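Record 1 of the preview.
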Amino acid sequence: MIRSRFVRSVLLVPTLFVALSCSDYSPTAPPKVAPTQAQDGLISGLLGLVTNVLGSLLKVIVGVVDPNGIDVRAVRWAPSHVNQVRSVSGTIGYSGGTLSIPGSDFTITFPRGALSSSTAITIISDGSGYVSYDMRPHGLRFAKPVLVTQNLRNTALYGTPQVWNSFGAYFPQDPPILSGLLKAVETTTTSIFAAPGGNAPAIHVWQLKHFSRYMLASG
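->
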């Protein structure tokens, strides 16, 4: 059973915004330095704009780990989505950075300090019809959680009751999908946001601690 809890948006949004705004894309690993007072002031001054970017925080689903497997249902793309293989690659260093796959409504943000040295990253969105990603190199671990932002509007989950109990699910390798049912080793801590100006669940933010294969799933 996936545990879930409601939290006030002011508790999570500052942490999320700091992670998003302090990252930058860099092919090299700069010295490890603390944020300056100017950076701290800028972050504080922009906290009020976060809900305009991601909308209102509606629910947080706490991730769980079970080596025996967690029963989940893989989520498909909606008919409006074009199923094809898409990918993005880049080198992320200590300063952090962001990679996106617009055709899959996917963005991954590496906060400052998540990686200790420059690392070649590749994210592949497969064309299977499921909201599924191969994140390489497999086994890569992060000193700080990496954030995946997944827009739900082009998924079959959008507008259904199942969206309230949906999350990112981790698999150590390509899982066999039988009628959409499969077993995950781990589920991510997932924050569900409304779209800006609305109140329907429309955006997921997953916290990842390592890389392998992840899918959008429901319990």
